[in-house]
Every structure is written in structure tokens, then in C-alpha cells.
């Protein structure tokens, strides 16, 4: 990908994020995206089919970038390290994550997909030992609970420190995993 192409995609991404602050994706037209980005529609269509295609591209980029960022983290023996790194990553790009985790209300699947990816990474690194048959339920519980906590944290303006929140999420998840282990023994 050449520099012009990268710049065009960056401008469109920024345009989309800006517009998503004010409206749902279904209300955003290609014309509006192009006007906000300062590019013409034919250039848009060289890269994307429609606004949803652009949104999907942005979402996948966020997942890939977050995953690559977390790949560089040495977890040692605690998932708290990953959670803390993820929370710090969110704070570094507050505008993007606020829009994508809070205001993209038509697309409720993206935040869950992102957190599930993080949870799977933690599971691969730390081997949480969740019985295979219970994994979908456990992941669903941990993803939804963690997402709600992170969304609250963003809405409240990051009142808790990243460390405090990472400890809280890890503690709640750890207690849940202990309960699952005990359930499995019955």
C-alpha cells in the first residue's frame, strides 16, 4: 500500500469516527464521509463498497492492532498484565475507543468481539483451564462483564486508575473461574 492510499484510508477512518460521534452508521452516507474526509466519492469506492465496509475495516484494524500490541506484552504468570496493557491502550486512543465501545450503538457485536479476542489471548497464554464444554458460557460471562466494567470506566472519565480497574476485572474473573472449577468437581 502506497503513502497516498494510507493517507486516504486514514482520512476516511477519521471521518467515520468523527461522524459516529453524532449518528449511527445507518445514517452516514458515502457522500458525507467523503465531504468530511476531503476526498471524492470515486476515491472512496476504490477502497470500500459502502460505509459499513469502512466500519468493518476499522473494526478489524482495531482488533489486529490491539492483538499486535498485546503480543508484545510479557504476561509472566498473571492475566492482570494483559488487562492492564489493554486498559492503557484504550486510554492512549480514548477518542477511538469511546466511539467504538460506547457510541457505535448499532454495532453491539464489535465490543464483544474485541474483548473475546483479548480473553482468548489471555487463555492461550495462561491456560485458564476452563472445561471445553463450559468455555462458551464462561467466555460470554467474562466478556459481557468485562465490557460493562470498561464501558462504565470510559463513561465515568477513567476515574479509577488503570491498575485499579485491571485488578478489579482480574479479581472478578478469577473468582468466576474458581466457581467454575468447583462446579465441575460436583
UniProtKB/TrEMBL annotation:
Entries under InterPro entries matching the protein: Homeodomain-like_sf, HTH-type_Tx_Regulator, HTH_TetR, TetR_C_Firmicutes
Signal peptide coordinates: none
Pfam families found in the cross-reference section: TetR_C_8, TetR_N
GO MF assignments: DNA binding
Residue ranges of DNA binding: 29-48
Domain HTH tetR-type: from-to ranges: 6-66
Keyword terms: DNA-binding
PANTHER family: ACREF/ENVCD OPERON REPRESSOR-RELATED, TETR-FAMILY TRANSCRIPTIONAL REGULATOR
Protein name: TetR/AcrR family transcriptional regulator
Upper taxonomic lineage: Bacteria, Bacillati, Bacillota, Bacilli, Bacillales
Amino acid at each position: 500500500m502506497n503513502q497516498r492510499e494510507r493517507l486516504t484510508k486514514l482520512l476516511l477512518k477519521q471521518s467515520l469516527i468523527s461522524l459516529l460521534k453524532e449518528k449511527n452508521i445507518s445514517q452516514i452516507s458515502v457522500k458525507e464521509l467523503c465531504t468530511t474526509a476531503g476526498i471524492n466519492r470515486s476515491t472512496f469506492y476504490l477502497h470500500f463498497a459502502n460505509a459499513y465496509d469502512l466500519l468493518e475495516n476499522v473494526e478489524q484494524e482495531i482488533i489486529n492492532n490491539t492483538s499486535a500490541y498485546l503480543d508484545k506484552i510479557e504476561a509472566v504468570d498473571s492475566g492482570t498484565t494483559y488487562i492492564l496493557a489493554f486498559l492503557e491502550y484504550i486510554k492512549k486512543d480514548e477518542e477511538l475507543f469511546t466511539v467504538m465501545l460506547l457510541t457505535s450503538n448499532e454495532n453491539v457485536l464489535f465490543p464483544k468481539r474485541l474483548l473475546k479476542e483479548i480473553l482468548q489471548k489471555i487463555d492461550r497464554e495462561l491456560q485458564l483451564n476452563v472445561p471445553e464444554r463450559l468455555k462458551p458460557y464462561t467466555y460470554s460471562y467474562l466478556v459481557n462483564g468485562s465490557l460493562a466494567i470498561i464501558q462504565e470506566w470510559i463513561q465515568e472519565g477513567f476515574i479509577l486508575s488503570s491498575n485499579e480497574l485491571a485488578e478489579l476485572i482480574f479479581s472478578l474473573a478469577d473468582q468466576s473461574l474458581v466457581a467454575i472449577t468447583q462446579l465441575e468437581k460436583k
